[in-house]
Amino acid sequence: MARKSKSNLSELCLEENKDQIYENALAEIQSFELPLGTTLRSVYDDQPNAHQKFMEKLDACIRNHDREIEKMCNFHHQGFVDAITELLKVRADAEKLKVQVTDTNRRLQDAGKEVISQTEEIIRCRVQQRNITTVVEKLQLCLPVLEMYSKLKEQMNVKRYYSALKTMEQLENLYLPRVSQYRFCQIMIENLPKLREEIKEISMSDLKDFLESIRKHSDRIGETAMKQAQQQKTFSTTLQKQNNVNYGRNMHLGRSRISESKNEMTLKRTFEDDDEHEDEVLTAQDLVDFSPVYRCLHIYSVLGDGEIFENYYRKQRRKQARLVLQPQSSMHETVEGYRRYFSQIVGFFVVEDHILHVTQGLVTRTYTDELWNMALSKIVAVLRTHSSYCTDPDLVLELKNLIVVFADTLQGYGFPVNRLFDLLFEIRDQYNETLLKKWSGLFRDIFEADNYSPIPVANEEEYKIVISKFPFQDPELDKVRMKHPHILQQSFPKKLPMSQSVPQIYMQVKEFIYASLKFSESLHRSSTEIDDMLRKSTNLLLTRTLSSCLQNLIKKPHIGLTELVQIIINTTHLEQACKYLEDFISNITNISQLTVHTARLYGLSTFKDARHAAEGEIYTKLNQKIDEFIQIADYDWTMSESDGRASGYLMDLINFLRSTFQVFTHLPNNNNDHAAMSGKVAQTACMSACQHLSMSLMQMLLDSELKQISMGAIQQFNLDVIQCELFASSEPVPGFQGDTLQLAFIDLRQLLDLFMVWDWSTYLADYGQATSKYLRVNPSTALTLLEKVHRGMKDSSKKNNIFAQFRKNDRDKQKLIETVVKQLRSLVNGMSQHT
């Protein structure tokens, strides 16, 4: 029971809770504040029949509210009725009031019609006045704008573009913002960019015309600049010469000729100009109008495109630089081609230098230096290539002078030109090569025209003419001049030892030094360096060109022995004159020869080598002539007896040698040096000829093609050798001591004596001893000749059958010969084994 009552209690509590939930849900629905979704979800989520119960609760709630509304309406109904009754009473009074108000309004309207009319007129006038005032104010704002725009148009018409841009800037920044609401202002605003573009195009067109103009006038600008630089240099040089007028007599005399040559070159290099502008000093600004550049630069700077303009200008100028630096293919043919090339380059960089100094930022020093370095590399390459084609030293010298003026001009504008002067040293080597080629031709012509005879002088005047060209001193004449001047004329006529080529060669060497010095001028080098260059080039002339000409001359077939002897004398005098050439160079450069670094001339070795070659050629020609005589020898090697006299060819040969050596003895011996020189050459030539003759005769006996020799041929050959010995003992050339010359034939003499005397026992017994009578006879030589004699005897005995006892003597002699042959062979074999 208790349990049952508890369950009923719990159910009762549950019902109460559910009712409370529904009450809360209804309260929430009536509040209209909380969202209904949550509330309705709490009602329907409990039990399946909750909806019905909730609806019942909802209907009960609605009925309660209806009852409350009904109570409220019943409570206020009487008041509403009373209010309606009072409103109906007021209705009649309202109608009366309306009539009164309407009547009053009508009478008021009638009374105010005139006032309204006047008032409207006043209002209209005030509106017009206000509009007029507004218009005046707006016109005052617009008139300056219109005036500025009109000014802009006028500036455009007269091509004052920079001022027009300033006017545009004022319009945009100051005037147009004030009247931006007007349509004409918008039109102006739209036109201003177009005007700017038009100005940019016009200014760019002017710039292009300017660039074309300076491209055409660059050579004229450069020509003027180079002329001014040259005039300035000439003026400075003249001033320096005036200050150094008493510098030194030797220096003055040494340079007088160079100065004259330099003046001639200066006149040639001076640019021709119109007479009316001769005294005017023109600049790049005088020749070219630079205003388009300034104007275009300012315009682009104002428009904010300064960098674009700078890039365009530099790009175009680089293109023009490449065109200017491109030479014509025939530029190396004439100096005018080089002059035009240099003028264009100078004109280009003069313009750039002018732009650099009168503008800010358009051209910078870095840009010009970069452009100049590029141009300098191209210029050096072009000059190095084209100068290599020049074969005329005068053209190379003109080119050098142009390069110097070119370099001095650009150096005056601040451009580094050291590489150009370095290039000049390369061109100087080429100039020296062209000079050497030219002087090689001159030397050849002099040698071809020389008669290779001593110079005849009829009187003292002719003698002075010769010594004015060549430093020759005659001791005899000097002695007579010092002691007996009144009988000096009696010393003439006479012959000087050297030929005409000697003073001519000496003068040409001096001319070469002058020519070489011309190139060394204006190279900004010290006197020591110039002296060194002159000596080196002169050494090249002597050791290479002159030496080669002398060697070729000596080798020419038409040069005979007399000419060779004269060449030896000539080279001796030229060798002695080298010291005067060194003095000549020292006077020109004012550098003492005692200076440590001063180079010396190598002429001594050159002329010594030429003399040695001439002497060798003399010996060679003599030997060749001897060979020609030997070739016509016609011995009968089988003759039984000799003719009793020497061979004809040998006598002709000896006569030829006598006449030849007489030429040596009749050479002019005006001084001891010449006498010693001619005597030494004659002695050497004579000894060489005798030795060669002896050797040739020995080779004739030992010739392998000669198989047999008779004793009669030996006797004939002995007669010829005797003539040779007589010739040697007759002292054909003075100066030999004792029988020195005869010793050339000692080998032949001992060999022939051995066979003539048939002294084989003595030869074999004394062989190898220093006191041997046949010391110079070689066993192999004796064996060869003995075998030929043996074969000759055999052949003779076969043909001769007259007497038996003779045949017996022959057999004995042959046996003796066979015995000697065996002994000689043993000696030869012993020598070979010993070797």
UniProtKB/TrEMBL annotation:
Protein name: Exocyst complex component
Residue ranges occupied by any Exocyst complex component EXOC6/Sec15 N-terminal domain in the UniProt entry: 57-226
Any one of the GO CC terms: exocyst
Statement: the UniProt record of this protein carries the keyword Metal-binding: no
A GO BP annotation: vesicle tethering involved in exocytosis
Keywords: Exocytosis, Transport
Role, per record: Component of the exocyst complex involved in the docking of exocytic vesicles with fusion sites on the plasma membrane.
Organism: Lepidothrix coronata
Pfam family name, one: EXOC6_Sec15_N
UniProt domain Exocyst complex subunit EXOC6/Sec15 C-terminal: residue ranges: 420-788
Keyword Repressor assigned: no
UniProt family annotation: Belongs to the SEC15 family.
